[in-house]
Write a structure and sequence with these properties.
This protein has 484 residues and is α+β, with helices and mostly antiparallel strands. The chain has two domains: 243 residues, no CATH class; 160 residues, no CATH class. The chain is built from 15 helices and 20 strands. The strands form five sheets. Strands 1, 2, 3, 4, 5, 6, 13, 14, 15, 16, 17 and 20 form a twelve-stranded mixed β-sheet that branches.
C-alpha cells in the first residue's frame, strides 16, 4: 500500500462501520465499536480487551462492559453484516463451508470450556469449541456466523450456565444442529449458496445430510471410509408381514429379504468391480504455494439409506487419492444431479481451505482466539465483531489485489460490476514441469495466485496417512485434467 491508500483507510473504516449505527441506541455506546474494531485491526500482539482499550484511550472496564453488558443489538449487527456480504459479494458460484475451531483456555469460567479435543494443540485439553459457517466466492472468503458448542457437562449444570450468562433456552445440541441453525439464519438474511461443503465428521451423520437435502441445498461433503450405501438400489416390497412372535400383520415398505446389503465406500473402492477396475483419473484441484495439488479420482453413483432404511435417490461418490501420498484417500458424496461433472464436484470438495484460511487470519490478524471474558454475551458479541473486522480486512485486500494484474494475465477475482468467467474445471491436458534434486523429484511451483495459498490444515480435521517427504522419489504422470 502507498501513503495515499493508507490515509484513505480511516474514513473508509468509518463509512463501513456507519452501516451498523442503528444497532446501538446510544451514541457513547456506538463510539466503542470503532475502538474495538480498530484494536482488532491494529498491530497489537495481544488483542484482548485491556490492550485494545489502552490503545484507544478508553478505560478497560468500560470496553469490557461494552462487550458484556451495555445495551446494543448484536443480532441486528449479525443480520446487517450478512446482508452486506449478500449485497457486495453475490455469485452463482458461492460456496458455504461448515467447520469448527477450538481455542485453548485456562481455568473453568470461560463459557463452554472443558477438557475435549483441541485441534490447536492436537490433543485433549482445556478449550472451547465454536461451530462456523464460511462463505467463499473465487478468491474471496469470510466467516458468516459462529456459535458456541455447549458441552453436556455445562448444559446439565444450569446454575453454572446462569453464572456465565448462558440463557436457559440454550442447551446441549450436536454440532450438526448448530450448523443447520447457522445455515438457516444465513439463508434467512439473504445469503444464497450454490453449494455447501464440510468435513467427514459432518458427512458421517446421515440425518444432517438428509436435512440439507430437504432444504434443497446442493452439497459435496467428505464422508468417513465406513459410510454405507448400495451400489444398485435393492428391490422394495410392501407385502404384509408378521414379526416373529407377533400376531399383528404389518404393511410397510421395506427392502426385500435376501437383497444385496450395503457396502462401505472403502469396500466399493477395493472390491466393487465397476469402481475397482476403473482407471484413476488425475486432476489438479488447486494451485498451492509449493505447486499444484494433484489428486487421482474415481467416480460412481450410489444409493445411501433414507430415514426408513430404504434406498435414497442417487448420490455421487468420489474417491480421491493424493498423487504424492497414495496412502491418503478421501471420500466425498454429493446430492447434485447425476449429470454434474466430476470437475465441478472436485472444485467444491476441495474448497475447505477457504474456511481454514479464515480461521488462520482471524486468529493471527484479528484476535479471534484472544477472548478472555467469562460471560457468554461477551463471547457471542466477540464472534460477531471479529467477523465484522475480518470482512473489512478481506474487502480492502480484495480491492488491492484487483488493481494489480494477475501473473497469468487474468483479471482479479470477483471484481465488482464485472462478470468473471466461471471457474469451472477445464478438461484439458497439461504437462507438469518437474525438477529433479538429489533427494527426489518435486513439482515446479506454478505462478502463485494472490489470496489462493493453502493454509495449514484445520485443527479439527484428523489426518490420515503420512505426509509426503522430499526424500521420496515420486514422479507425476505426464498428463492430467485441470479441476481449477
Amino acid at each position: 500500500m502507498d501513503a495515499q491508500q493508507i490515509r484513505q483507510l480511516k474514513p473508509r473504516l468509518a463509512e463501513y462501520l456507519g452501516q451498523f449505527d442503528d444497532c446501538f441506541p446510544r451514541r457513547d455506546t456506538r463510539a466503542h465499536l470503532s475502538v474495538y474494531v480498530e484494536g482488532q485491526l491494529s498491530d497489537l500482539p495481544q488483542k484482548s480487551v485491556e490492550p485494545m482499550a489502552l490503545r484507544g484511550k478508553v478505560p478497560p472496564r468500560t470496553l469490557q462492559q461494552f462487550l458484556a453488558s451495555f445495551i446494543w443489538d448484536e443480532d441486528r449487527m449479525r443480520q446487517r453484516y450478512q446482508g452486506i456480504v449478500a449485497r457486495d459479494h453475490p455469485s452463482p458460484r458461492a460456496i458455504g463451508i461448515i467447520d469448527e475451531t477450538s481455542d485453548p483456555k485456562k481455568g473453568v469460567k470461560t463459557p463452554g470450556v472443558q477438557r475435549q479435543h483441541c485441534g490447536a494443540v492436537g490433543k485433549h485439553d482445556n478449550c472451547i469449541v465454536t461451530v462456523h459457517l464460511g462463505y467463499a466466492v473465487d478468491d474471496f472468503h469470510c466467516l458468516l456466523d459462529g456459535e458456541l458448542f455447549l458441552p453436556e457437562s455445562w448444559s446439565d449444570d444450569r446454575a453454572r450456565c446462569r453464572e456465565a450468562g448462558i440463557p436457559d433456552t440454550m442447551t446441549y445440541r450436536p454440532k450438526t444442529e448448530i450448523a443447520l441453525e447457522l445455515y438457516d439464519r444465513a439463508r434467512g438474511n439473504g445469503i444464497a449458496l450454490e453449494w455447501l461443503t464440510f468435513d467427514e465428521w459432518y458427512g458421517g451423520k446421515p440425518p444432517f445430510l438428509r436435512a440439507l437435502d430437504q432444504r434443497g441445498q446442493k452439497f459435496v461433503g467428505e464422508v468417513p471410509k465406513n459410510f454405507h450405501a448400495w451400489t444398485e438400489p435393492p428391490p422394495v416390497t410392501q407385502r404384509p408381514f408378521r414379526r416373529p412372535g407377533s400376531r399383528r400383520t404389518r404393511r410397510q415398505k421395506r427392502v426385500l429379504a435376501g437383497s444385496r446389503k450395503t457396502m462401505t465406500v472403502a469396500a466399493m473402492l477395493h472390491r466393487h468391480p465397476p469402481m475397482r477396475d476403473q482407471a484413476w483419473q488425475c486432476y489438479r484441484v488447486k494451485d498451492g504455494q509449493k505447486g499444484p495439488h494433484v489428486w487421482e479420482v474415481k467416480h460412481l453413483l450410489i444409493y445411501p439409506k433414507d430415514a426408513d432404511g430404504l434406498p435414497d435417490r442417487r448420490y455421487h461418490l468420489l474417491a480421491a487419492r493424493d498423487v504424492l501420498d497414495p496412502s491418503t484417500v478421501k471420500y466425498f458424496i454429493s446430492n447434485a444431479s447425476p449429470e454434474t461433472s466430476v470437475q465441478t464436484l472436485l472444485l467444491v470438495a476441495f474448497s475447505r481451505w477457504h474456511v481454514e484460511r479464515c480461521f488462520e487470519d482471524d486468529k493471527g490478524e484479528i484476535g479471534l482466539d484472544h477472548y478472555e471474558g467469562r460471560r457468554y454475551p461477551g463471547l457471542k458479541r466477540h464472534l460477531i465483531l471479529s467477523a465484522v473486522s475480518h470482512l473489512f480486512l478481506a474487502q480492502v485486500q480484495q480491492d488491492l489485489v484487483e488493481k494489480k494484474p494477475r501473473l497469468d494475465g487474468l483479471p482479479g477475482a470477483h471484481r465488482r460490476g464485472e462478470r468473471r468467467a466461471e471457474p469451472m474445471a477445464i478438461r484439458t491436458q497439461c504437462l507438469p514441469v518437474v525438477r529433479t534434486y538429489s533427494q527426489g523429484t518435486l513439482l515446479l511451483p506454478t505462478p502463485k495466485r494472490p489470496g489462493s495459498e493453502e493454509p495449514h490444515q484445520d485443527d479439527q480435521t484428523p489426518t490420515t496417512g503420512t505426509r509426503h517427504s522430499p526424500n521420496q522419489r515420486r514422479a507425476l504422470p505426464l498428463g492430467f485434467d485441470i479441476a481449477l
